[in-house]
Amino acid sequence: MKAAFAHPSSSTLSPRAPFIGVARHRIPTDGEGVTTLAAFSQCPLQCAYCLNPQCASPEKAHFHFTPQELLERVKVDHLYFLATGGGICFGGGEPCLRSDFIAEFHRLMPSEWHLYIETSLAVGPQHIETLAPLIDHWFIDVKDLHPDIYRRYTQHDIAPLMHNLLLLKELGLQDRCTLRLPLIPDYNDETLRAESQQQLEEMGFTHFDLFQYIVRN
Question: Is residue 89 part of a domain?
């Protein structure tokens, strides 16, 4: 079977976006089947235990791709995606900041691929509205729903996260979301995490990833 890959005209090519890396053959950390993680640079949060501090600024990006150029790079695994029900996961950094890029990539990619996203939802709602019809599953890094803990840990207000969680609820997408709730040393505990989970369950979310940050000096 020959894959059908769309090719935009030169007049419609999107600008390049900054990436810190593209990782192939991830099983099954970023969605179903074999996935490729495309990690953008740039993030609005300043988390105390950030795993990818190089994402803080687009100036630290290792690569720059247009949607078409990224497609050319990742389509080598087309048959793996078809055989396993896999596809592309956009992470970072904060991929929702690049909603237009992802929308264009979605237009170009084969329809059989699945699209996943790892996000903090710390963006304007217009980005979520753009992506909602396109994403097969959302992996949402909630951190903690207590506003004071969230602000101390991320250096960011919790309002965008809460607004976008409610937006996903209003769109009926709770079953397409996995919410990540970590134990964060020096910031929360089991009781506080349980309170966050209960609040999310009351919003209709049912899929959770509970784990503990391992802090290495």
Answer: yes
Instruction: Render pLDDT for 34-84 as a digit per residue (tens, 0 to 9).
Output: 999 999 999 999 999 998 887 776 677 789 999 999 999 999 999 999 999
204 within domain boundaries? yes
Helix (H) or strand (E) run with residue 213 in it: none
Q: Which domain holds residue 125?
A: 15-212
Using pLDDT thresholds of 50, 70 and 90, give the confidence band for residue 10. very low
Cross-sheet strand order for the sheet of 137-141: 63-65, 17-26, 35-40, 87-91, 114-119, 137-141, 177-183, 208-212
6 is a domain residue? no
Residue 5 domain-assigned (yes or no): no
Is the pLDDT confidence value at 13 over 70?
no
CATH of the domain at 194: 3.20.20.70
Question: What's this model's pTM, rounded to 2 decimal places?
Answer: 0.93
